Structures are given as structure tokens and as C-alpha cells.
């Protein structure tokens, strides 16, 4: 998590979505701090850092589940197709009948369930409780994403009411919803439930959840749903998700769904952040003419993770001499301390590996290739690092 956040912060993303878990948020904050120190943000403060978003669900949702099985029930002669198909190596066997799912690594894609020859693997769903998130860490988050489904007005209303203590800390609200015949009237109901809303709103069109790394074609469902929501003219901004991948931008450009005049501008410049309720409502209407038929961003989940995942351990080993124990400092838990631009004292005497020979360079290149399709002003290591 920490290195993943660091890489995409350096690549210039606007927002990073993580689980609503105190330990995960603390790791993400450390990743942002590492990006600050490595990139020399002290010299480029105008670039800013991505906002940190946490995800919640109002009911059962594929994003909130974990695979589970008892390895003792696996046939001794099973060829274990679940193991190589797992995109995060969450399934590992130490010996026949020994092993299972590492819960912290599983993000619930369900691919192992589909290939299990004896149907031993099951999905265990869970609800994230806002009350379980540490109150003293609310000032470490900037935004919230709520996963919902058509017909869940009552569940959404209950969750929104429970988020009352969170609202003073939020700069942005995102609603993620899959397609349905009645999705547009449902989203209109959600807007009425949330009104008055004093921060920008994003409608995230969850076309085919957690599938972006499976193949080019998975992006089509997300784009079709984005087109449907754009045509409905709902107040707010539209962002494709669920199946997005390296093919998404070219397809959006082909369809004329990207406003190229605004691409590259930071999220906080595009969105009317911090406006009072009446002004925000007006801003939503004002921007509808500009963005009525264009998306305002793209959410990359499994695809973005898959691009750099094989390099994260090597990057961590490379950076230890430079970031050292400071990178693992737990002081970010419970307080939003300023992100230091200083490297550890021993860094000055530690030779910086040539950037073109490093795993960090390869990871940043991959991250930049993804982000740079929409943003030309990507963050990167300053020249003094190679």
C-alpha cells in the first residue's frame, strides 16, 4: 500500500482511494510523505498532493468481500488454478492441505472462485462501519466514496446519516454504482438525499468491477454507463470505473468524451471545491454546459495496481537506505502532521542508484504512462535524483 500510494502520487494522480481502515490510511499517509521527500515537493509546492479517499458500502458489494477456503478440503491432486490466477498472490500453499488466503492481500475480485474445480472457495462479504474508523484520524482523509446499488435508497440514507461526523473533513464525495435499468432515477434520489451538498460530487460509473486487468474489452461497460449518466445531466461530475485500463482513454477520445482543454488540470482546479451550498448548486449547473458530454476523470483500480505490483518489493528495498526508518514512522496515526521534505541524515552518504537502472524508474514510468494519458503535468523525481 505505502509504495503503491507513493508511486501514483509521484505520477500525478488527483485522488487515491483506500479502505476505510485506520492502519491502511496511516500507510497511505506514509506513502504520501515518502513522495514528498523523494520528489522534493518543497521546491514544487504548486503541484500539490493527491487527496486521500476512503471507501464505504451501504450493503453487500463485490468491492467488499474476501475469498476464503480451508486448504484441508482441497483434493491432494488438485493443480491449484486459484494460486496463479490471483492478481495479488493472496493465495499461497505451503504444502498439500496447508495454506489459504492472506486476507490483507485479497481485494475480492472473485477470479479464484470461478476457477476452483471443486467449488471450495467462497466469498465472504462485509460491511464497513463508519463508526469503526478512528475519530482522531478523520482529519487524515479528504474524501469518501460510497458504493451502492439501485434500489438501496433506505440503506444509503442510513449510511449518509451516520456520516454526519465525517462531513466537516470532506472536500469531495463520490458515489459508485453499477448499471441498472433504473440507475438514473436512483442516482437522482441519492442527490436529493444528500442535498444540500457543500462539496463537489462525482458519479463513478462502475461498469465491470475489478476487471480492468483482464483485457481491453472490459472498459466498454464503464464507458457505456458513463455515457448514460452524462446524458441524464445529473448535477456533478462523471468518472468511469470498473474495467478501466490502458485502452480507456483512446476509446473515450474516439467517442469525444474527453474535454481536452481541461485535461491536465488538477482536480482541485476543475472542481469548485469549498463553495457554499447555493454556489455549488450553481456551479454544477454552470459546468454542465462544458462537461455535459465529457467525463471529468478516470478511476483505475485493479489495472493501476497490476501495472506496478511486481516492482513494489524491489522499490522498497532500493529506497530503504534513503527513506530508512522515517518511512515507517507511525506518528501519522491520529494526527495530520506536515509532510516533511527532508531525507534521513544517512541519505546524503548513500549513493543514489542511477534512475534508469532502478525498479523505481520502471515503476514510475509505468505509472506515468497511465496517468499521463490524461495529465501532461505529471509529478516526477526532480533532476537532483538522477
Could you characterize what this model shows?
The chain is an alpha/beta fold and 386 residues long. The protein folds into 3 domains: 133 residues, no CATH class; 61 residues, Alpha-Beta Plaits, CATH 3.30.70; 167 residues. The protein has 13 helices and 10 strands. Strands 1-2-7-8-9-10 form a 6-stranded parallel sheet. A two-stranded antiparallel sheet has the order 3-6. Strands 4-5 form a two-stranded antiparallel sheet. Helix 1 packs across helix 2, helix 1 packs across helix 13 and helix 5 packs parallel to helix 6.
- Major sheet: arrangement of strands: 1-2-7-8-9-10
Structural class: alpha/beta
Helical stretch count?
13
Stretches with pLDDT under 50, minimum 5 residues = 41-47, 266-291, 330-337, 343-348, 378-386
User: What is the H/E order?
Assistant: HEHEEHEEHEEHEHEHEHHHHHH
Strand content: 5-15%
* Mean pLDDT metric: 80
Q: What can be said about the biggest beta sheet?
A: 6 strands, parallel
Number of domains: 3
Number of strands: 10
Rg, please? 21 Å
Question: Notable features of this structure?
Answer:
10 strands; alpha/beta; 34% helix; 13 helices; globular; six-stranded parallel β-sheet; Alpha-Beta Plaits
Short synopsis of the structure:
The chain is an alpha/beta fold and 386 residues long. The protein is built from 13 helices and ten strands.
Give the arrangement of secondary structure elements.
Elements: H1 2-11, E1 15-19, H2 22-39, E2 51-57, E3 65-68, H3 82-85, E4 91-95, E5 98-101, H4 111-115, E6 122-125, E7 143-147, H5 153-162, E8 172-177, H6 183-194, E9 201-206, H7 219-232, E10 237-241, H8 248-254, H9 267-270, H10 277-291, H11 302-308, H12 312-323, H13 359-371
Parallel strand pairs: 1-2, 2-7, 7-8, 8-9, 9-10
Antiparallel strand pairs: 3-6, 4-5
Helix pairs in contact: 1-2, 1-13, 5-6
Amino acid at each position: 500500500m505505502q509504495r503503491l500510494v507513493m508511486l501514483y502520487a509521484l505520477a500525478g494522480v488527483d485522488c487515491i482511494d483506500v479502505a476505510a481502515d485506520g492502519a491502511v490510511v496511516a500507510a497511505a499517509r506514509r506513502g504520501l510523505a515518502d513522495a514528498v521527500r523523494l520528489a522534493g515537493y518543497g521546491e514544487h509546492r504548486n503541484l500539490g498532493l493527491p487527496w486521500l479517499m476512503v471507501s464505504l458500502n451501504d450493503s453487500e458489494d463485490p468491492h467488499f468481500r474476501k475469498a476464503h477456503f480451508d486448504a484441508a478440503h482441497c483434493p491432494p491432486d488438485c493443480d491449484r488454478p486459484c494460486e496463479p490466477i490471483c492478481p495479488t498472490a493472496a493465495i499461497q500453499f505451503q504444502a498439500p492441505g496447508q495454506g489459504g488466503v492472506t486476507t490483507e492481500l485479497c481485494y475480492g475480485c472473485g477470479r479464484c472462485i470461478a476457477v476452483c474445480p471443486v467449488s471450495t472457495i467462497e466469498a465472504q462479504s462485509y460491511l464497513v462501519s463508519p463508526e469503526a474508523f478512528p475519530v482522531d484520524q478523520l482529519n487524515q482523509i479528504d474524501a469518501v466514496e460510497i458504493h451502492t446499488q439501485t434500489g438501496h435508497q433506505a440503506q444509503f440514507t442510513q449510511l449518509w446519516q451516520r456520516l454526519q461526523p465525517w462531513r466537516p473533513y470532506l472536500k469531495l464525495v463520490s458515489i459508485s454504482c453499477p448499471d441498472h435499468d433504473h440507475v438514473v432515477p436512483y442516482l437522482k434520489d441519492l442527490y436529493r438525499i444528500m442535498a444540500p451538498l457543500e462539496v463537489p460530487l462525482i458519479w463513478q460509473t462502475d461498469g465491470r468491477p475489478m476487471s480492468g486487468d483482464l483485457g481491453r474489452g472490459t472498459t466498454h461497460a464503464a464507458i457505456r454507463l458513463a455515457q448514460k449518466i452524462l446524458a441524464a445531466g445529473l448535477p456533478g461530475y462523471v468518472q468511469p470505473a470498473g474495467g478501466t485500463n490502458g485502452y480507456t482513454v483512446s476509446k473515450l477520445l474516439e467517442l469525444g468524451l474527453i474535454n481536452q482543454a481541461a485535461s491536465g488540470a488538477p482536480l482541485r482546479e476543475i472542481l469548485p471545491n469549498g463553495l457554499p451550498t447555493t454556489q455549488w448548486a450553481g456551479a454544477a449547473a454552470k459546468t454542465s454546459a462544458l462537461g455535459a458530454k465529457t467525463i471529468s476523470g478516470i478511476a483505475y483500480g485493479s489495472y493501476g495496481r497490476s501495472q506496478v505490483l511486481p516492482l513494489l518489493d524491489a522499490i522498497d528495498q532500493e529506497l530503504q537506505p534513503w527513506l530508512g526508518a522515517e518511512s515507517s514512522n507511525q506518528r501519522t496515526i491520529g494526527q495530520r502532521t506536515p509532510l516533511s521534505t527532508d531525507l534521513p541524515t544517512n541519505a546524503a552518504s548513500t549513493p543514489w542508484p542511477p534512475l534508469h537502472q532502478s525498479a523505481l524508474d520502471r515503476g514510475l514510468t509505468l505509472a506515468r504512462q497511465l496517468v499521463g494519458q490524461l495529465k501532461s503535468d505529471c509529478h516526477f523525481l526532480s533532476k537532483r535524483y538522477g
